[in-house]
Amino acid sequence: MLVLALFETLALLSIPYLAIGLRFIEQENEAVRTGHLEVVWLRALIFAAVMMTCLVAMGLYNIRLRASFIGTLLRIAASVAVGTVATVVIFYFSAFEPQRGLIAIMAGLAFIALGAIRFVFLKIVDEDVFKRRVLVFGCGWQAKSIAQLRRRSDQRGFVIVGYIATNGEKCVVPPERVLRPEGSLLDFGRAHRTDEIVVAMDDRRQAFPVQDLLECRLSGIEVVDLVSFLERETGKVRLDVLNPSWMIFGEGFRRDPVRLASERAFDVLAGVCLLAVSWPFMLLTALAIKLEDGWSAPVLYRQIRVGLEGRHFNVLKFRSMSINAEQDGQARWAEKSDPRVTRVGSVIRKIRFDELPQIFNVLRGDMSFVGPRPERPEFVDELNEQIPYYRERHYVKPGITGWAQLCYPYGSSTHDATEKLQYDLYYVKNHSLLFDLMILLQTAEVVLWGKGGR
Fold first, then answer.
1. Listed range (11-15, 117-121, 151-155) with the worst mean pLDDT
2. How many CA atoms lie within 13 A of 355 on its CB side?
């Protein structure tokens, strides 16, 4: 993905030069052509930065993107359209004259160049020669979790050489993939051009090959445990193979004071900016709710949620359900085509406008812009009993958007909560300011393409 981003950045930087050459190719006055080229480097930087931001926001650098080539082209078209408008606005308020003909040529060239690069990328990325060759040490139930990664997007970064059978372990992976090496593990790995060994034994207390794995590691073959491998390849922490020692001794799961300070500063700055931009939409949303349910009907909905370290707070949302949605006082998950949702509510849920009042929760310090979604205390008590490690998601502030919201659709059951928890734990382990920015940009994709709204 980094190489892809580099090629696309270089292409976008060169487009303004090419566009000026095409626009003024028939210009006889050399001074006119030279005058346009004098400041083109700054235009190129602005154009490339805006377009790259739009590409990120559309999820085009998400390694789990499963869109077809046509779907990718649609995302590129949307990115170029939004980026073109943003470029025109920036040029208008700067010293550059936003020439319509030149901007149109730049937009067309950007779509063609990005589409061509993506076509070549999709052809090349599936070739095994560009993937890491992985040898799995184990063939039991833990190793099966790797064998179950069958989707092309799940195997985009690696190819399995085979599974090594260990003494006393019942093999449950495909028999034709099981290998029984003769000689040392290092020689076997070199013979199969292995880049990485994943330790996936069901029971490490029996015949754990410490010396063999150490030789491989010191000889240049990477050695990782199963949890870390699956975390890296799937973008989530798999609960079925997770153990407490990995969380205690592994990287991440830290509360760095510098990180906490930068997070709060970012939340306040982003909250003020977003409030300045979104207040007209909030006003229109409030008016729509009043028109549907009457002027005496409440616009905001306050509900107790569980926040940082299990503390309770009142979350603010635009009311999207009928006033007496839970007359019996029983907490219920939102359902697909939920009859309690009003007509205005169905619209604002799809475009996520019902979440806008949570900006005030962020400014107050109850929430962050990015983090696990806050749940109701009734659900949290139930899920704590049913799902292991569910409490650990509350060691960061809850967020308006989050990694789980990008990677998994709307959750309305214990099974969904379990799946989303795996992404939440990945965020708790790896959260950083850069990661937050990436999530915020890709949230635009969720809103624009209507993913997960209910």
1. 151-155
2. 20
Q: Are the CB atoms for 50 and 98 separated by under 8 Å?
A: no
Query: Is residue 362 within 8 Å of residue 273, measured between CB atoms?
Result: no
* Backbone phi, psi, residue 161, to 5°: -75, -40
Look at phi and psi of residue 65 and say left if phi exceeds 0, alpha if psi is from -120 to 50, else beta.
beta
In which residue are the tokens 């937050």 written?
436
Q: Copy the structure tokens of residue 53.
A: 């931001």
Confidence of residue 344 (pLDDT cuts 50, 70, 90): confident
Give the strand pairing for 312-318 and 132-137. unpaired
Distance CA 295, CA 292 (A): 9
**Cβ neighbour number for residue 344 with a 10 Å cutoff:** 21
Extract the tokens encoding 358.
Answer: 């949570």
Strand partners, 142: none
Alpha-carbon gap, residue 228 to 231, rounded angstroms: 5
The listed range with the strongest mean pLDDT (62-66, 159-163, 167-171) is 159-163
* CB 406, CB 435: distance < 8 Å: no
Q: Cite the DSSP H helix spans in 316-374.
A: 343-350, 358-364
Kindly give the residue spans of alpha helices, DSSP state H, lying in 58-209: 69-92, 100-125, 141-147, 185-191
